[in-house]
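User: Before I run my own analysis I want an independent prediction to cross-check against. Here's the chain; please return only the structure tokens and, at the end, one sentence I can use as a sanity check.
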Amino acid sequence: MNYDFIFDQAIQRLHAEGRYRVFIDILRNKGAYPDARCFAGHNGPKPITVWCSNDYLAMGQHPKVTAAMEEALHNVGAGSGGTRNIGGNTHYHIELERELADLHGKESALLFTSGYVSNDATLSTLAKLLPGCVIFSDEMNHASMIAGIRNSGCEKRIFRHNDAAHLEELLAAEDPNVPKLIAFESVYSMDGDIAPIHAFCDLADKYNALTYIDEVHAVGMYGARGGGISERDEAAHRINIIEGTLGKAFGVMGGYIAADTKVIDCIRSYAPGFIFTTSLSPVLVAGVLAAVKHLKESSAEREAQQAAAATLKRMFREAGLPVMDSTTHIVPLMVGDPVRAKKISDILLAEYGVYVQPINFPTVPRGTERLRFTPGPAHTDAMMADLTSALVEIWDRLELEFRKAA
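Assistant: Structure tokens:
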């Protein structure tokens, strides 16, 4: 058996399809986001502007967050020292879980090492605890949700994206006595669209199903206190389990769920992805705690980010660039080809100091490859105008199609 040959072939397939991924070697400049330094392809660091970060509100750079992390480092040291059950539980963890439960109007919350783990561990464990459970999953759900559903070993039904009518067809065809769970996201991060939360909750009430919402791309971003789309749409009380991340709008790292105490106790007690994992460093938890508390009180960052996203969408549309329709802070620019998407990204970085990653399969379906821009509060109108001009020049150079004005 030639193992090297097998691995070589696997990598060559990615190159042939134009979707081999390259990590860009950069360092962000503290306090100067979105400015950064790139170390790839030239002598010494080159100044660049970051346009694709999921640190949507630049909270990873916020003075309150960095100060809290520095204080925790000097107070308790670097690591947690173990799992939550054995040595890895700290007052920081408990306080953050209280803040997150309060953020979503739930009784309890539970921290995980990432949003991926929180989805995988919770969905797989929850379905195993419910005898004969059937999970109804939106076809565009994140890979971590799909992994959790698969790892549960339960029956699943896939409904068309954000299609309440199709979901009802599937629910109506199921045995009324079988436990049911409807799993969906609030903001879908590659298209920037939003789920019809109340319609799904109405169906859950009608067919006696539990609801599970992934608010990863919405927590911190929407609602008066940053509770997500479920807070903005006054639907949080109708959702059984709310899942979120601490690595995007909150700017640090980690994941969590918020729910009734009984549900949290079950996941805490049964989920291997929680039980057997070293807990988050208290330094990270302290930073998140500062970010959550700040965004509960301040809407300035959210408002500035939404304004920047609206401006960039308008500039792209006026320039005839194929910006996708989006009602959220995500600004996707359709390319439709992995090789061209990578080429545009490479030119932007090398010639214009603009860093945006191409988004390819399996993150998005083949033929829908795109560039995904996430303008933040610190991206100025001048930066956006320069970016638009650069894209127009590249579109002309590569003889790509512009969108005709409506």
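Sanity check: Residues 300-318 form the longest helix (19 residues).
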